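Summary: Need help interpreting a holo structure output

Steps to reproduce:
1. Submit the protein chain below together with the SMILES for adenosine-5'-triphosphate.
2. Request a joint structure prediction with the ligand placed.
3. Inspect the structure token block that comes back.

Expected: a single structure record containing both the chain and the bound molecule.
Actual: see attached output.

Input attached:
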Amino acid sequence: MALLEIEDLTVEFYTEEGVVTAVEDLSYRIERGEKFGVVGESGAGKSVTALSVMRLIESPGRIASGEIRFKGEDVLGMSEREVRDLRGQEIAMVFQDAQTALNPVYTVGEQIAEAIRHHLDYDDREARERTIQLLDEVGIPEAETRYSDYPHEFSGGMQQRAIIAMALSCEPDLLICDEPTTALDVTIEAQILDLIEELADEFDVAVQLITHDLGVIAKVCDRVMVMYAGKPVEKAPVEELYYDPKHPYTVGLMSSIPRVGDRRERLQTIPGTMPDLVGLPPGCSFHPRCPYAEEVCTLEEPPLLDPETGAEASGLGEASEHTAACLEYAGALEDGLDYEVEIRNSESEPRAPQGGQR
Ligand SMILES: Nc1ncnc2c1ncn2[C@@H]1O[C@H](COP(=O)(O)OP(=O)(O)OP(=O)(O)O)[C@@H](O)[C@H]1O
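--- attached output ---
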């Protein structure tokens, strides 16, 4: 049994424009201690997926169908009280904006200590000691003194460290990080990613890392799911995704991995934008932006397939599996996919493939 199992999850929002299917038939699993990345452009459904796991989807949204199991327990069937315990003690979440997660009127230390007192049976002194220890572990210098600082006295990076300390304070088994470094500059981003990686190993906590940046996933994760318009389009162990991407959308994302110091607009190499989720294009949702699309792509919607055998992926899939939702692997494209992956071994990080031209 995996730590987290999501099966055929569909989440809808009832808006004035119509029903928005933000997530559709999504399945994935996260093993204990695994670092799992979810990547895709804005609006792909990454945050909605994470909020569903925490049962935090609010009106006008609802989980229309599917199953969510955490340690085998049916999350959607839990009482409110059970869900609160799940959020406090088993799954913690770190958001992009540390400022909104910290209350400006309490000191940083008090806020973390309060979370510890609330979730674990610690008295005031123990909670304070544990907080100082945690602040130290997340790399806040002079943790004892900084305990009494207010959030505004912390830099953005320090605030995010404090939030991570708070998230870890109740010893969760899963830490969901939703764009944890988007608001930070590149150097601080790298430090926070290192921290998340170190702490995941030290605290033996699984991580679901959500980002629009494949470079971030490469640094931290073991396995990755690429999402497009509410659906998974590719799932693979991270190295395989980098060296042998199978979906044209993934190739486009990789071509736009920014290099250090490069703040250009990301994803500029994939022309077009995510489709309107109220009226998704027929067939493959990516076909209007895909350089390899053929007529069949406007007619048929590809499921996740094994690129080698063309077999349809079953439900949650195996952790080692590499699958992609492209009709090429059903043998349906006449001209095939025509891109090459360029690997430069002189670089320490895997490099982007070069998208091919027709
Ligand atoms: N409260 C809401 N009301 C209506 N639609 C919503 C709401 N929240 C999300 N959606 C819909 O769900 C889609 C997916 O949103 P989601 O926040 O999961 O995307 P994302 O991949 O996390 O993007 P980002 O990187 O911008 O956070 C949105 O484009 C929007 O259409």
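--- end attachment ---

Reviewer comment: The two ends are 44 Å apart (CA to CA). The CA atoms of residues 212 and 275 lie 17 Å apart.
Status: needs-info
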